Amino acid sequence: MKYLILGAGPAGLTVANRLKQAGITDFLVLEKEETAGGLCRSAEVDGSPLDIGGGHFLDVCRPTVNEFLFGFMPEEEWDKYDRDSRIIVNGNLINHPLEANIWQMKIEDQVEYLKSIAVAGCNLGTEMPKMFIDWIYWKLGSKIAEEYMIPYNQKIFDKELDQLGTYWLEKLPNVSFEETLLSCLTKKAYGTQPGHAQFYYPKKYGYGEVWLRMADAIKDNIEYNKFVRGIDFKTKTVTTADGCRYQAQMIINTAPWTAFDEIVNMPDNIRQSIGDLKYSSIQIEYVAENLDTSCHWIYYPDPGLSYHRILVRHNFCLNSKGYWTETNSERINMEKPNSNFKYMNQYAYPLNTIKKPEIIKKLLDWSRKQGVIGLGRWGEHQHYNSDVTVELAMKLADKLA
């Protein structure tokens, strides 16, 4: 075929449908699971949909993306929410982001946070450090670093945080002592809203529904239960675990590069560097209990709790109950055995390690010259939300068309 698309998650489904809308039908999508959606899949659990890939929502900030997706699942089938997310830190339940809502803490904690922010390196004009942990202290002050950023990132990503770079954190705002003091005195937040300040979520379904409809729109061009185990860059051929071979003029890869068992006709230095790409695995676990809160999700930096976040399902998924937790696979042994529904996502978050930008640039630049394009969270090894992935995939498909 002309285009072979590896993976039927948001990236692969968007490229495929956008090509079809442009009148191009000479393509095939291979999906390793028995259903489409990737990390955005949903399953029926306890009488209601549960998003087994973790918390995923449709941000309102990209109208072109939303218009495209509404073509498969009309806007009237979605509810729109104003984001309500919280953090529990040192016994304080406050709104996210922490740096904008210190004023909601106990007064004695506000004083301690203000003192640490006042002597943060970025406020004193000291040189910016290069190591992750030092950078967090420099950027946010010791209290935010020690009570939130460091323990939370250790829980969600990795205990050895200094293997991470700082390039992905540069968009974090400097925490200004003056602005934080004014915020505490006036008792109101300051600064910009976080991502998903407003978001859509389906009225009757889980987030996975829109991707199922996109898959149905190309049902004649998609094959399931096809785990791609090998790829040959010279012949642009892939081999699946069941022994099938597929060849194309161009391959669009949305799958994790580290998932391929065999990569042929790629320079040794590039192929070997793929092994240095790191990721974290996350387990979601459903709990039937309803919580007495109006928020949509809560962050938990407390190292004594195994999970790092809970999603309060009954506050955004209508006619449902309960919540689910999200836990790094390395912390699962902290859990007590129970009969709750669980699902392990092997590939959840790409890790922004120090060498990753160099590895990915060489890999993607070389691959593209061979007619193999990396796309999306895993094809580019970037922590993209689904709306960003769809936007990138739309642009690629339009360029190809």
List the helices and strands and how they pair.
Layout lengths: L2 E4 L3 H12 L5 E4 L11 E4 L2 E4 L6 E2 L3 H8 L7 E5 L2 E5 L2 E4 L11 H12 L2 H4 L7 H9 L1 H15 L20 H10 L11 E5 L6 H9 L4 E2 L4 E5 L4 E4 L4 E3 L2 E4 L8 E3 L3 H7 L4 E9 L9 E3 L9 E3 L11 E6 L13 E9 L5 H14 L2 E3 L1 H4 L6 H15 L1
Parallel strand pairs: 1-2, 1-14, 2-10, 7-17, 11-15, 14-21
Antiparallel strand pairs: 3-4, 5-9, 6-9, 7-8, 11-12, 12-13, 16-19, 16-20, 17-18, 18-19
Helix pairs in contact: 1-8, 1-12, 3-7, 5-6, 9-10
Can you describe what's shown?
The chain is an alpha/beta fold and 401 residues long. Among the domains are: 3-40 and 207-278 and 353-400, FAD/NAD(P)-binding domain; 85-186, no CATH class. It contains 12 helices and 21 strands. The strands form 5 sheets. It has a 7-stranded mixed β-sheet. The chain has a 5-stranded parallel β-sheet with strand order 10-2-1-14-21. β12 and β13 (245-247) form a beta hairpin. α3 runs antiparallel to α7. It is globular and about 65 Å long.
CA gyration radius, whole angstroms: 22 Å
Helix/strand-derived class?
Answer: alpha/beta
Strand order of the largest sheet: 8-7-17-18-19-16-20
Shape: globular
What is the residue-averaged pLDDT?
94
Count all strands and give the number.
21
In CATH, the topology of the domain at 3-40 and 207-278 and 353-400 is named: FAD/NAD(P)-binding domain
**Which parts are unreliable, with pLDDT below 50 for 5 consecutive residues or more?**
none
Separation of the first and last Cα atoms:
15 Å
